[in-house]
Amino acid sequence: MLSWLLLLSGAGIAAFVISTLSGGGAGLMLLPILRMGLPASHVPAALSIGTTVSSASRIALFFAHIDWRIVRWFVPAAIPCVWLGAWLLTYVEPAYLEAALGLFLVSNLPMLLRPRTSSARPRAQPLWALCLIGGAAGFVSGLTGAVGLLFNRFYLRYGLNKEQIVATRAANEIILHLIKLVLYGLFGLLTTEVWLAGGIVAISALLAAWLARQLLPRLSESLFKRIGYAAMVMSGSFMCSNATAQLADRHGIALQTFRTRHGFDSRLDWAGTRLTLEFKYRKGFELEQEIEWDELPYDRKLLATPLITGADRVVVEAEHSLRGRSYELYVYRNGRLDKHRL
User: Are residues 70 and 165 in the same domain?
Assistant: First the structure.
């Protein structure tokens, strides 16, 4: 427990410094670490404690840079959607949403790799679109505890500079965080462990805000954007990896690849079914799938029946290759395995 809290503290400071310098994303970066010590349904609550303090500190430090025009359109639409997201948290498997958000963040890779161009101011965007953005941000925030970098691209489209993005995001989100804390408390998600983890994250956020304030004026606008896109891609990669591991464990999915004397084998186990892809230097690729006895063609059953007399266990595999389809029979008898090709 102590080692996890120390890891959370160090990671929290690093994440919130990067978050301020890139316009957000600390919550998404800390999701995998929080899930190492808390149940998945309690992670958003712990994260909200820290992000509330982080938003408050950013407002105090960058208050003069808040774009209230955006806040007035963003917040009213976000508030009801926060309740919907927090309510669905008790019914929805967070790993699926985490995987979707991770893929969305990774999709910013082309923006990171795009060569630098002249910094032309983006054309004006309609203010009414902020209602849609606010609603989406509120829903995702209530369901995951973090919004972070997901909506940074939209802030950039409204022509905000780096200080304005940091300040305006904080003003938009602090009300959402406070509402979430109330809702999480009503839903019984604010346990002692959650308050402890959230407190560690909050202290890290305060330290990081002071450090970031010294560094932010030294960044150019183009470097600020690139750091933001890099943070999006990194956060998305971590989220996809974490969600994939959770879903694989939940659904009994396992993938193994190993080298054999005649080539390579890859085995995929999923929901009690095994698929084996073999590559043999002389024969090429072969796909093997375990099947039921009843799926074996009648003529092959006639050949196999004498071979399984007195067997303790029988496994039938269908083998698909460029040469056609064949079958293999594995017969376990008295601790011995006999393999037959049908």
Answer: yes
